[in-house]
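Lab notebook, bench 4. We co-purified these components, and the gel suggests they stay together. Before we commit to crystallization screens, I want a quick structural picture of the whole thing.
Request: model the full complex, all chains together.
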Amino acid sequence: MNKADNSVPDHATAAEKFLQDEERVNWHDKALWFNRQKRDISANQIPDWELLRDTASQIKDNVLANLDDYLVQFEQNALQNGIHVHWATDAAEHNQIVLRIVQEHGIGKLVKSKSMLTEECHLNEFLTTHGIDVIDTDLGERIVQLAEEPPSHIVLPSIHKRKEEVGELFHQHLGTEKGASDPAYLTEAARQHLREKFLTADIAITGVNFAIAETGGFVVCTNEGNADMGVHLAKVHIACMGIEKIIPKAEHLGVFLRLLARSATGQPITTYSSHFHRPKTGQEMHLVLVDNGRSAHLGRKDFYNSLKCIRCGACINTCPVYRRSGGHSYHYAISGPIGAILAPNQDMRQYADLPFASTLCGSCSNVCPVKIDIHNQLYQWRQVLTAEGYVPKAKQQGIQVMAKVLSSPTLYRVAGKSGRLMMRLLPGLANNKTLNPWAKQREMPQPPKESFRDWYKKNRHKDE
Amino acid sequence: MKVGLFIPCYIDQFYPQVAVATLQLLEKLGLEVDYPLQQTCCGQPMANSGFEAASAGCDALFVQNFAAYDYIVAPSGSCVLHIKEHLHDAKNPEATSHIRNRIYELCEFLTDVVQVKELGVSFPHKVGFHIGCHGQRGLHLAQMSELVAADFSKPGYLLSLVQNIQLIELSRKDECCGFGGTFCVSEAAVSAKMGKDRVQDHVEHGAEYITGTDTSCLMHLEGILRRQKSPVKVVHIAEILNGQYE
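Here is the predicted assembly.
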């Protein structure tokens, strides 16, 4: 999966396609902006919101600076609690570990609550090719699973789907009435459908939001209670986590749980914050700790702090580019600004376009509950990707010419004059709708007769 | 106090009236202002495209042109932020750091250094204010809607000194317009849609003019307004504050 794949359109191309249905884009933009507004209202109810962000950021600084120690401490405590702990270097090893556990129990079907890590590792596809039936139990995840699509948002996986489309999908797969699109009706249908899956699944996979070093326990946050439903009814619980999910102490949960749901959806807290410490009698509990590039990422001084991310999705909701390009245009498991700075850590070539899918407006960094400097990292990734040669030759040459002109006052004047002259004389050419991407939907600026410099020389009598 | 006037390249070439307004405004306030004739660009177009190294020539030229001034002032939040954050000249570290500390966007220069209390100008129109993201979130010209913090706006204060101006409220007060430098062509579809939405917010609230701190944003919004054959016009805040807008 980590090889450059030319069949995947880059962000700009995919975004242009998404934008062909403007009415849908307007709806998508508003749905996400609504979430941003709910987040604002909720944050403003906490006078110390900015202090809370600072605190969370500092706890995560400490975690990343001492990750090795915390991981060892966490493992020891988890083992003492009776949890089976596994370590996976990469996605392939993670998938093998999960498959082995499933096969050892001779089980062909499992339920899974939301886990971006398993999306990153493409666990579903892997298990499916080995004959395992994987049922995503988060409603949004189930919708995209039935549609055979990846999630388009880390918190709202099917935010790109309208209720009519969900109705059609459920009609095909769950036998709901043709044309029905009432959310309550569709949700009830999904609930009944999933209930049967919960009752008959012997393995439940969950993600991990926070793993606590001092206790060896972990917390899973959901709004639907689907992680709990799965785990309580299954013989085996497999929890999968990236190694950066550690927090030092249980008392730190108070900081992160207050921030997570408020940042994500404006809720004070997720409906369920489930604490798992040890398997219940007769149950097996496995925990898979996955590196998959995180150690290398931790070593990149300009980028390591994106490992602080708690996957709230606030940066995605606020991103004006995301809202108008859709999650799939990022062609990575995690979309939006945070995906654009995480993805190049996995594969620079394949994701070289993503750090450029931003205006660097900085709204993402301002909403981030752990204060990742997202827009600065986008800028910094551009420098790295360019230096590493992952930017098209034509662009490189264009920039070199631009740099030459702009660093020479003489060339600049000549180019400026001819540019203005050309725009004045040849509006047809400058406005050619296929050659000039600016002019496709915008008029070119109307060229003035003289530059400011010329005006200044005339009006302020200044000699060179 | 010697002020070096920095006029970004696209203003020099396409919007000289913004530069003229800036110069006249500063002169009216009694400042000694000089425009170094050999200036070109801040280097941001290269750097934001990932070619920071290619902007070395621009940086050196910028240092040459502006090292001698007490203050450097420009009618652009974006270019000023770029100089503040990214100006490098290994041969002239002192001059570089002097410039980085002494460069100001026009509005913050007027409120923080000159401490303007009155302007004596009028602009009898309904005006929407679009703040450029780099000026706002980078230079902190105004409070950001994402933060839980006290509200303020330096350009807003200056506009409040203008007589007869009717400032409209926007639904999204600090949404990006989508210009984004080379983003406006490399992601042309998203850029244009963002611009259309930004324009729509102003139009829906009855704006006759859209003003702002950055001509780059305004150039983009103007391109959309003119394509839509809208009667709404763009005007840089310097033109309003200078009171000579025709």
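Chain A touches chain B through 76 residues (CB under 8 Å). Worth comparing against the SEC data before the next meeting. The two ends of chain A are 60 Å apart (CA to CA).
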